[in-house]
Amino acid sequence: MKNRDNSASGPDKKLSLEKTARKAGALVFGVADPDQFTAAPVGRRPRDLLPGAKSVIVIGGAKPRAGDWASPKFEHMELSSTNDRITAIAMKLSHTIEREFGYYAVTTPPGVDEGQQPFLSMSLAAELAGCGTRSLAGTILSPDHGFVYLAVVITTLPLPFDKPLDKPVCPAKPCIDMYEETGRTPCTAVCDASSGGCLSGKIENGQWQDRYYDAARCTARVYNHWIPSFQKILADSLDEPDKETRRMKVNSGLFTRTLWSMTYANISQGQCFECIRVCPVDAETRKLGK
């Protein structure tokens, strides 16, 4: 692709892209080195999506509003998720890079590829770009904004890299204090693996040890009204020999809600949000006081 803009340096282009992203609503912005994705399996690295990639741009934002956290029913987030906004910003950056700077750019799809595996680990990209660190449940937490939805742009445009954060965001100071008193943190208290939940771990010297997240259990509980549910109900309905019973299944509330969830849901959702609801990182933005 022919370069169109040679007047701006790499740092200038990076600043321009960050301003564009933040003006559109991004809360975090960082750039990772594609050579650092050695922890990702072959086939799931930046240059597997875009040969010759020189930079991996990570943006985050569009997190649930205070009203979403005030709701006692996490299921509503399946229908009101705002993650599509952050993906749209990534597409805007990709267009800018190609049309104004003349370099290739690919917005990483937020869904899954073959084998139910992501095209690229956005969590790993966010860590390498200094946008946050993993929580006990694997979700990336920004030190300034807590939970955010993520989007990634892979590009052949050379940009200055950011570094991973020196200090993990999780566990936060209130979590460490609570653990010293009770042996639990806010998230392990609401989703304790020993009591049928998904999380457990020990905190030693301010860091997680023996951390555990039951991703399979978490996924099975959250994906009751999404593509896996659609596949299950569809197969069951097709195998149903009785016409009236088949009609009842297809028109059931479960199947209807599944279709709504597929239409409007965050396609990379995999948690019920209860661990994030009680997370002290950026907790002040979840309450308005009225």
Structural write-up:
- The chain has 290 residues and is an alpha+beta fold.
- Among the domains are: 146 residues, no CATH class; 38 residues.
- The chain is built from 13 helices and 9 strands.
- Strands 1-2-7-3 form a 4-stranded antiparallel β-sheet, sandwiched between helices. Strands 4-5-6 form a 3-stranded antiparallel β-sheet, with helices on one face.
- Strand 8 and strand 9 form a beta hairpin.
- The longest helix has 19 residues.
The helix/strand series, from N terminus to C terminus, equals HEHEHHHEHEEEEHHEEHHHHH
Stretches where pLDDT is under 50 for at least 5 consecutive residues are none
Shape: globular
Which structural class best describes the helix and strand composition? Answer: alpha+beta
Helix content: 25-40%
Tally of DSSP β-strands: 9
Radius of gyration: 21 Å
> Main sheet: which strands, in order across?
1-2-7-3
Q: Which sheet architecture does the biggest sheet show?
A: 4 strands, antiparallel
Strand content: 15-25%
User: Cα distance, first to last residue?
Assistant: 54 Å
Q: Number of DSSP helices? A: 13
Q: What is the arithmetic mean of pLDDT?
A: 88
